[in-house]
Amino acid sequence: MTTSDHADLGDRFGEPDEEFRRPPGPPGRPPISNVWVYNGRAYDLSDWISRHPGGEFFIGRTKNRDITSIIGSYHREPERIERMLQRYSLDRRAVPEDIHPKNNAPDFLFIEGFDSWRDTPKYDFSDPGDLLHRIKARLKEPAVAARIARMDRLFDIVAVLLVIAYFAVQGLRLTVPAWMPLPLFVLAMVVLRSSLAGFGHYAIHRAQKGMNKVFTNSFDLNYVALSFVTADGHALLHHPHTQSEVDIKKNVFTMMMQIPRLYRIPVHTVHKFGHTVTGMTIRLLDVVRLTRKVGVKEMYGTMGGALPHFLGSFGVRFLLVAELVVFIAAGDFWAWALQFVVTLWISTFLVVASHDFDVHTDDLPGSDTEDWAVHQLEQAYDLTVVGNRYIDCFLSAGLAPHRVHHVLPYQRSGFANIAAEDIVREEAAESGVAWLPPKSFLTDRFPALCRIYLFSRSREAEERDWGPIREHLAPAAWKTCAVYMVQGFTGIGTV
């Protein structure tokens, strides 16, 4: 959105229109008050954390943030939520001191100079005739709602079958290698890890309650992310604020660009291997310490609310390391290593394939619209892998029906998004938004992303205008590579 757009919306939501200010103090220190900001007003939702139907995590994690876009996009009836919020009103306008400058997240996730109060986009979700309201109204039709419920159940059945296949493929490779030759094993593991990560992708968007807190961690099976952290960065920062400076997704996956291009694949692979064996566990232990410091009640309401999240996340980390140990013990390390490398790089590119993260935000279409749903459609691609939408929904880690997913992030499955696509497409046409055909991951996005992320000069070489020799032979470049690899084993850079 443009500066003038922010000013107009600031007046509409009752925000102070004076020059941006931030009280002095140590950078990154969270405010001491229990404040959530909605439409420019201050609320204290502490007592709502353990009662939130969507789970404690989402309320506890958004303390000292602007939750306007989260409420507007993740709830079928945000007007009802707004009425409920009045019970927790502090009866005043929000001020910069209410907002943590970095959203209570690590500084490295944001560009230099980022400040949440100033840089969080603001949209008006009150227009009953906007794209999002029209779509939601049609989805309430009984026949449509029933079909979406059936699609959710079918999606979960497929996920169960994929879990069975996941362990069966590894078991065959370890016990009867002749029945699972290396090429077939690698292909099967890449497909299964991506598919189960696709299930985890949608589990992150579901209510974080009960066993779903455990299932969410299947997002970790493709080695790329740490779902315990991604549930915040993906669901609460990326989706509501796509392609803005709040969208950490576009920042995280450029970290490898500091590595000289010829070293990038091996160095980043070692970095992520470090994440797998020790780094992500160290990051989880940091989260445990942070939770104890902040208080379990502040983040989860109760210990019972916290335990499944931690058990599931530590359990998946143990599973990934145990698989490595078992393959080493069986004398089949290179089979594990090959599937690890191929899965890692294909999954990494899948994560960034559905947005133009390489394009400057100001050059993107739709950046000046006040209609949140139109903005989401303008900024997202649908992906295709083999051409069947239901299969592609899993092969693409949940990104095949991606445009619908961004307009309706609260839907529980990719199959539900496919069922809703005709409605979203028809209503988008009414808003003048073209429905673009899906992009092929294999023939379109993957080659383009290789050029961007693998073959372009390192950041330092770009800034200093170094040629390829100096880019790769400068002592500073070697130091960068060494530090980056070590950081992987210590959990730095983990998402």
UniProtKB/TrEMBL annotation:
The chain crosses the membrane at residues 154-172, 184-204, 307-328, 334-353. Pfam families: Cyt-b5 (PF00173), FA_desaturase (PF00487). The keyword Nucleotidyltransferase does not apply. Residues 37-94 form the Cytochrome b5 heme-binding domain. Keywords: Membrane, Oxidoreductase, Transmembrane, Transmembrane helix. It comes from the Bacteria. The keyword Oxidoreductase applies. Its EC number is 1.14.19.-. Residues 1-22 have a biased composition (Basic and acidic residues). This is Fatty acid desaturase. It comes from Nocardia rhamnosiphila.
